[in-house]
Design brief:
The chain is mainly β. The protein has 2 helices and 16 strands. A hairpin with a 2-residue loop joins strand 6 and strand 7.
């Protein structure tokens, strides 16, 4: 039972902890921005050659490393999530051995006009139990200058070894361009409802952003609490072909910090 609980926690984290400084700083927006991680976010946004390196430090020694590459209409992404060292116990509560659970996801993607396709292989190891499978999805992005809209259905696939069900991701988002270089984003995802919103301000080579994410309570949670809302913010600075960024996420339980380097040759 504990192993299945941990893998379910991971699958939620894979959805709720998106890669990228800008994505997290904007409250978890994934469908409307391109920071070199479109293989995970929205392949329909792939346009130019771009490389991304992001490292994230989460609570309880959880670390997330993300790598992204885009060239012409193709994208590649690698996501590695490490939960740190966990002490194992037997049925009587005595310590047994330590183990380091991790999750690895490798994704490839292609843009086709206003649509994008992605295919990913995922692995998750909890102690001696291994979960692995393949899933894919389709997304879209339409830019009308002052307004952009996007949609996605993802995680269509199967886990092969332990027969764990994958949570289907259905999402839609909209971006409004406001005067004075402001942009407003809002995005909704399900089937477990999640709502993200954020503001972005661009000035010369500087981007400043902030956001908020609402996570719908689990079925065993009786009422809404402050723990269901995460706040975030950050900035990026561009230097010639490079863009350096930082963002943070504040939750009731802990804070997270993310650093990012984007190279656009």
């Amino acid at each position: 039972m504990m192993l299945f609980l941990i893998i379910n926690i991971y699958i939620d984290n894979a959805i709720r902890l998106p890669a990228g400084v800008q994505s997290n700083g904007l409250g978890g927006i994934t469908l409307l921005i391109n920071e070199g991680l479109s293989a995970f976010h929205n392949p329909a946004l792939i346009r130019t050659t771009k490389f991304n390196f992001t490292v994230s430090r989460w609570f309880n020694e959880t670390n997330l490393l993300s790598l992204g590459a885009e060239y012409k209409d193709y994208g590649l992404g690698i996501n590695y999530l490490n939960y740190g060292i966990i002490q194992g116990y037997d049925e009587y509560g005595f310590p047994t051995h330590q183990f380091a659970p991790y999750d690895l996801m490798i994704a490839i993607a292609k843009r086709a006009g206003s649509f994008g396709l992605n295919l990913k292989n995922f692995q998750s190891r909890v102690d001696s139990v291994l979960y692995t499978g393949i899933a894919g999805g389709i997304s879209s992005f339409i830019d009308l200058k002052s307004i952009a809209v996007s949609a996605r259905i993802d995680n269509l696939g199967a886990e092969f070894l332990q027969k764990v069900d994958l949570p289907i991701i259905i999402g839609t988002g909209i971006r409004f361009k406001l005067p004075e270089d402001f942009s407003f984003f809002i995005e909704a995802r399900g089937l477990n409802f999640e709502l993200s919103s954020g503001f972005l301000y661009e000035y010369d080579n500087l981007k400043i952003f902030c956001g908020m994410k609402y996570l719908s309570p689990k079925k065993y949670v009786e009422r809404l609490s402050f723990a269901d809302i995460n706040f975030s913010g950050g900035l990026t600075i561009s230097f010639d072909e490079y863009e350096i960024g930082y963002s943070f996420i504040y939750t009731q339980f802990a804070n997270a910090h993310l650093l990012e380097i984007i190279f656009t040759p």
